Amino acid sequence: MTENGKIAGTPPADDVQDFDAIVVGAGFGGLYMLHRLRSLGLRVRVFEAGSGVGGTWYWNRYPGARCDVESLEYSYSFSEELQQQWAWKERYAAQPDILRYANHVADRFDLRRDIAFDTRVRSAVFDEDANHWTVHTDRGDTVRAPFCIMAVGCLSLPRLPDFKGRDSFRGQLLHTGLWPAEGVDFSGRRVGVIGTGSSGIQVIPEIARQAGHLFVFQRTANFSLPARNRALDEDHVGRFKADYPQIRERARHAPAGIAGIPMPTESALSQADAVRQRVYEAGWERGSTGFTRLYKDLLTDPQANDTAADFVRAKIASIVRDPAVARALTPRNHFIGTKRICLDSGYFETYNRDNVTLVDVRDDPIEAITPAGLRTRSREFELDTLVLATGFDAITGALLGIDIRTSSGATLAAKWADGPRTYLGLMTAGFPNLFVITGPGSPSVLTNMISSIEQHVDWIATCLTDLRERGVRRIEADRASEDRWVEHVNEVADQTLFPRADSWYVGANVPGKARVFMPYLGGLGNYRLRCAEVAARGYEGFVLQT
Ligand code: NA7
Predict the structure, then answer these.
(1) Does the Cβ of 194 fall within 6 Å of ligand 1?
(2) Disulfide check for 93: which of 97, 114, 334, 518 has CB 3.0–4.6 Å away?
(3) Please, which residues have CB within 8 angstroms of residue 229's CB and are 6 or more apart in sequence?
């Protein structure tokens, strides 16, 4: 700070462009936020680090990348014309289709003219006296607006583990979340993949089909179900679209924001073995992440969970021919569903191929990346290409990648050093007029992201309208309300098995990250009602200033 209270490095006032709102990110959250704010007559500037729209779906272009929510539900509901006219091809849309859809939305609603692409936001500073945010970018822009909305995504900061010798590798080093747009040719190559989360599980069968040899370096075996992806049939689509208003309404009130995954009512333990087996078999045949919501106690009761986990373990044993490989692929150290369950297309079958080798790096850890490949404690692997499917600094990574501070010296990084703290996942005390779309403490990644995005964007748009009508210039989460919300988020999580897994939901995949269960497990339907009530009571739990 300088003596006059201004932040050092702030350019002269005439270099600053003024807007009514700044939005960071042009994925599904940022695009819809821009559309809504514009319809309120606000002047908006959106910054996007990529060269195009789509966010997560812009960056994750690896072969096999596909959404695990059905395309007819993983799409915007805000425009009846859009949802009627857009034609999804497959039950689960592949990344190129989702990206096409994002581009279509951007063109259809003429969104691009307010988006600055190839521009990364470096800092956002709140002026406590003037009540506005000043945002600086890596291209030298300085813009100012009373409101700043972070639509930076939950899975947008790829994590490249700090393997010894990582930069010495002479071959091609790739991360699934930063995939080259021009694609990669694996034919005849010796390829290594590190990681068997959703990204690994999707990319491995695709690479195996092309590569000379594929080595999969697995630290933790994962639960996965066959996606049963297929081309959509026209009659089904016609019926679905005719029912869209009711289906969308059900999705808005469903726990996962998905109409096809309703709230379970039965308990697994209350059913006879044979009945349960039939239910699991039907779930396995259906191919849906709803598998872990077949019974209400699967994610709360270890014994109930075991019944579902054992079913999937037996399936793995029946698919993978080599018993030693099947054993190594069988997850045993977490409850099914407490790490994001995967949907695959031929994942376990891939290990029956002669050109695929599973390397268990829990017992035989990776020691170093070498110029020629990779070395575990006991073996050397020569590789032409090494794919890191090692995930993301999830939920908070992209937010904390921006230097967010106030003129009185508070920084978000310091405030969240022991884990994120928010009120409703929408705002964080001490940082007025800053909204986060699908932030920590909201249902976000445990739901259909587009349902959650629409709920947040609609809430924020209504809030800004209300504030304008009442002449309110400043809104801030009240600290006591935030404390109670954080406590509630933890309480709900602690009633489940989720916090016991070393997942990215608790930040366990990032060394040094505080272990806190970040998303809200209360269900999107309940959460939506809570947010609506808060607004109806005059923004209860927020401090408003005119
Ligand atoms: P995930 O689910 O975080 O998976 C990352 C994988 O990489 C996982 O198998 C990790 O093993 C493995 N990993 C990470 N670091 C290492 C090191 N240092 N050594 C060996 N193996 C490692 O990321 P994804 O991209 O697959 O999926 C993220 C989400 O995107 C997914 O849940 C969907 O919601 C969409 P670990 O389990 O930590 O032992």
Answers:
(1) yes
(2) 97
(3) 66, 90, 91, 92, 287, 343, 345
CB atoms within 10 A of CB 313: 20
**What's the predicted TM-score (pTM) here?**
0.95
Assess whether pLDDT exceeds 60 at residue 6.
Answer: no
Q: Which helix (H) or strand (E) holds 466?
A: helix 449-470
Structure tokens at 452: 């959650």
pLDDT band for position 7 (50/70/90)? very low
Gap between the Cα atoms of 88 and 77, Å rounded:
14
Kindly state if the Cβ of 192 falls inside 6 Å of ligand 1: no
Residue bearing tokens 């445990």: 446
CA angle in degrees (0–180, nearest 5) for 455-461-464: 140
In this structure, are residues 495 and 468 in contact, taking their beta carbons and an 8 Å threshold? no
b/e for 109-120, b at 16 or more Cβ within 10 A?
Answer: bebbebbeeebe
| Domains assigned to the chain | 16-157+394-545 (3.50.50.60), 166-232+258-388 (no CATH)
Element (H, E) at 44: strand 44-47
Residue whose structure tokens are 């209350």: 270
- Can you name the residues that pair with 405 across neighbouring β-strands? 125, 411
Q: Which residue has the higher pLDDT, 518 or 2?
A: 518
Q: Which residue shows structure tokens 């009761």?
A: 301
**Residue 64: closest CA among 214, 257, 262, 265:** 214
pLDDT above 50 (res 4): no
3-state SS class at 247? helix
Q: Terminal CA-to-CA distance of the chain, rounded, Å? A: 26
User: What is the spatial distance between Cα 104 and Cα 33, in angstroms, rounded to a whole number?
Assistant: 16
What are the angstrom distances between the C-alpha of 343 and each of 277, 287, 326?
20, 7, 18
**Three-class DSSP category at 358:** strand
Angstrom distances, CA of residue 483 to CA of 221, 370, 437, 491: 36, 47, 20, 12
- Ligand 1 pocket check for 391: Cβ under 6 Å: yes
Cβ atoms of 328 and 313 within 8 Å: the answer is no
Pairwise CA distance, residues 408 & 317, whole Å: 59
Three-class secondary structure assignment of 186-213: CECCEEEEECCCHHHHHHHHHHHHHECE
Closest atom, ligand 1, to C-alpha of 339: 32
Q: What is the mean pLDDT of residues 153-180?
A: 96
Mean pLDDT of 324-349: 97
CA 199 – ligand 1 centroid, Å: 8
**Beta bridge partners of residue 145, listed in sequence order:** 133
Q: Distance (Å, rounded) from C-alpha 226 to C-alpha 97?
A: 20
Atom of ligand 1 nearest to the CA of 60: 25
CB 213 within 8 A of CB 188: no
**Is residue 166 in contact with ligand 1, taking CB distance under 6 Å?**
no
Please list the helix, strand and coil fractions of the chain in percent, rounded to the nearest 5, in that order.
35, 20, 45
Place of tokens 């469903």: 254
